[in-house]
What does this fold into?
Amino acid sequence: MLSRIEPSATMDKLRIEGGQALHGEVGASGAKNAALPLMAASLLSAQPVELEQAPRLMDVHTLGELLASMGARVERDGSRLRLQADRITACEAPYERVKTMRASVLVLGPLLARFGHARVSLPGGCAIGARPVDQHIRGLRQLGAQVDVEHGYIVASVPGGRLRAARITTDMITVTGTENLMMAACLADGETVIENAAQEPEVVDLATMLRSMGADIEGAGSSRLRIRGVSELRGARHRIVADRIEAGTFLCAAAATRGDVTVRDCVPQHLDALLDKLREAGAQITCGADWVRLRADSMPGGRPRAVAVRTSEYPGFATDMQAQFMALNCIAEGAATVTETIFENRFMHVQELVRLGARITVEGNTCVVQGVERLSGATVMATDLRASAGLVIAGLVADGSTCIERIYHLDRGYEAMEHKLAALGARIRRVS
Ligand code: EPU
It folds into this structure.
């Protein structure tokens, strides 16, 4: 049975008494954005897929429930998730589930590839932007699927039962789009090439597991994927790659509070773009094979320097780190721009940061952040996952008490965040 992760009551809040520098060690969990496609990939085989280091997150739970509703067996044993899709009874992802988590669309490629039909709700818009899935649909059509959008659903089928290979060039770089098409191509007839592919570590992690399931994939981590279809895939056991965004969030929190924190169980290379910016801000950074230590307790001038960032696809500066880095810039010396190029509406945290005393002006997709010496605690509202993480960092440095409402957003993507931060010395607690 899937052990339940109860949704945090929508009234749950985080209360933070700011001003405590973070010190000590913290471990990164398995990555949410790797866990979700890996779980969807279990639909490609009748044999079991075992995922180690599966984070206890609301999004993982939601996808587990969706797979179970299709007939898959989903079991959790500690940090191990076991999925087996040997008795799929419904190739359908209903609106009620997809609307709570867009990544549900990741079941589309695997369902079409293995069962030849699927009915998946269109995700609709979300807080950070419109986020269409046209590239997923276009690529699947190129692989021979017949795809219609009817009554809010993507209704797809494969004439003849088996997808056929194609050369696909996506119009823009899309992470879940690349993952969906890569999974579909694994069981297609012939050799598929995906150009303009996403190079994120989570895409590489998916390719790694697919290969251990018997898929023939080359080029993962580059912009060209070459996939030779096979007739079936076997099960696999796979350790989920570390969450670079969670790790990066702790590092930003350490820098903002002028602390000294070591993040264990992470992949430092996956954090390169962020680490460069943190060094520019004045932090001292040392890395080992699977850890990063950030010291900001003896920064010249006592405050971090403001540093300009511009989000881009991997290996550039991640959009998922933008809000957290903005929080750091809020208390830095000087002014810097923060430019968002991936999502058109990912500045929802700005007004909340301003409520904490930040000085930020927004012009189009660029914010100018003028650092201030101190923020002051207030009640603020989380609007999406990473925005919430930015507010937590701001709360950790603000004078007095900060209350963050609607933290169910945070529970979608951060495992036990308040416990991990408290272990580093933060005064933070969840109140119901
Ligand atoms: N896009 C299209 N059409 C498509 C697909 C994407 O126009 O068919 C656009 C999007 O609207 C966006 C851009 O292309 O402007 C890039 O979107 P992408 O498809 O790469 O995003 P995603 O796959 O939906 C994943 C992560 C996000 C992360 C982005 C960018 C997962 C489950 N989600 O989303 O994670 O921000 O890539 O790196 O992997 C988060 O964890 O908080 C989060 C939002």
Remarks:
- The chain has 14 helices and 24 strands.
- The pocket of EPU is lined by residues 33, 36, 102-103, 129-136, 172, 174-177, 319-320, 342-343, 385-386, 413 (CB under 6 Å).
- The longest helix spans residues 244-256.
- The CA atoms of residues 278 and 329 lie 10 Å apart.
